[in-house]
Amino acid sequence: MQFLKKLSVAAVTSVLTTGVAHTAEPTPEEWFNAGRQTVIDAKHLNPNVRHAKNVILFIGDGMGISTITASRIFDGQQKGGHGEENSLSFEKLPYLALSKTYSVDQQTPDSAPTMTAMVTGVKTIGDSLSVNQYVAHSEPNGNVIDNNKLTTILEQAKLDGMSVGIVSTARITHATPAANYAHTANRDWEGDADRPADATVPDIAAQLVDFNINGGIDVALGGGRTRFIPNTITDPEYGVAGKRKDGRNLTTDWTSKHRNAQYVWNQAQFDAIDPDTTDHLLGLFEPSHVHYEADRLAQDKAGEPSLTEMTTKAIEILKKNKNGYYLMVEGGRIDHAHHAGNAYRALTDTQQLATAVQAAIDKTNPADTLIIVTADHSHVFTIGGYPQRGNPILGLTKGVGATSPDLDLLGFPYTTLNYANGPGYTGASYDNKSQIIQPEGPKTFTTPMTPAWASGNEGHVPSKFDPAHGRPSLDNAKVGAPDYLQEAIIPLGSETHAAEDVAIFASGPKAHLFHGVIEQNVIYHVMAEALGFAEQHPANEHDEEHRNKSAKHHR
Ligand SMILES: [Zn+2]
């Protein structure tokens, strides 16, 4: 298995060293005609005003716009192109809007209130899952939770006779998947032992298995086994103990309570699932999160399916329902790689999400299926410097016409991808030194620094200054290694989320309703409109469209 990891290192290095000049550039006439063709195509774009039979909501956790751009270039360079001209699958969807991600109490949000906004239509406070803003953080009283819970699109879909599925590379009880089916004021209460002993609100894993609308959840695939298994039982793959103290084995509860139900935890069992005879599938492939896509094949002991395989299997099971389905798919570990300050795994997991979206496009009919691809929030991840066209995205910045990497004021090269904060700080403050390339400095200059704002030179910095610490001496072999941590300005053990808007891509029925810069909770309202739920809502009685329609929608 070790050779597989070595192979992926080699693949990265080859992208880095092959550099530019892979493909012939378009001529000026070809640039002009391609631009014109895009407008002609747009003129023929007709909004699909029908109701949706199915909705698939893809979330790239932490997949900000800079992550999408860098992944597009990374993917294009792996295919042998310059990279910039490439498009990820979801970038070709016809409709686009920007999403404002702040929560009721956070300028920069976490995944709990952001997903709550998307699946309930209501913004709430940090760490809260599908309960309103009036519930105090960590409210333990189940009655208070019940009285303030927000109905989710998944619950409405079940009430309407549809099938529902949840797929994630994170623990299936993690914030993004959990907001779909659970109601709680602390996203960390994933298992019963995670809560205070006197809490009466059920833990998130129990809420998944005990979900009782119309026969329960149909498909749940991801990680997080330990929250489903009692502490008296050891994990089948790694031998670690389960984390439940209430004695429940939720994996056997799943198979005994549902009809035609299966529980699987490895690749062979997953592959053996026949979608035609399985109506309820629970798959938990790791004790915690499943592996990064870059590590999955080499590191998983018992084998685990990719996000694309999980998405495909989910659709095959859910599509048997003639009333349609709601499916949420999360690329949950883009976020984790960024928190670790490791761009390589963030980009490869984004690439895998794009592959999963393409699989969904291939398996559905755009006339009846609304597909949405968005992020819950961004990260402090940047693409900088003035690299030349086709410069390896994970490599050192090399300018137009240059034969060697550009140098900073200390005389050191630097990467195109960086973080504003995180473990990649080069001042050697982080204890994970095995992954930090130590600085060369401090280098001391004797000439006093004249600030750019005082020098009258339009923001160009002076040629010399006196840094507290030096930067590391880098080469493309170091920065191209999969474990390299891109440099960060501020030393933090975990790189942070960012507050700027994220993109929403969409195709299918009502996708044209995504336009402009919108609040994140509008995503729910487009899904509800597409599925005909908005017309059933008492608050919309005066809606003009509602008056002109029969009570029950047609899908
Ligand atoms: Zn995060």
Task: Pick out its properties.
Alkaline Phosphatase, subunit A; 2 domains; 19 helices; 555 residues; binds zinc ion; 15 strands; alpha/beta; globular; disordered N terminus; 10-stranded mixed sheet; disordered C terminus; 14% strand; 3-stranded mixed sheet
Summed up:
The chain is globular.
Could you describe the 3D structure shown?
This protein is of the alpha/beta class and 555 residues long. The protein has two domains: 378 residues, Alkaline Phosphatase, subunit A (3-Layer(aba) Sandwich); 85 residues, no CATH class. Helix content is 30%, strand content 14%. It has 19 helices and 15 strands. The protein has a ten-stranded mixed beta sheet, with helices on both faces. A three-stranded mixed beta sheet has the order 10-11-12. It has a two-stranded antiparallel sheet with strand order 9-13. Helix 8 packs parallel to helix 9. The longest helix has 21 residues. It is globular and about 65 Å long. The two termini are 48 Å apart. The N terminus and C terminus are likely disordered. The site of zinc ion has 5 residues, from helix 13. Zinc ion binds next to helix 13.
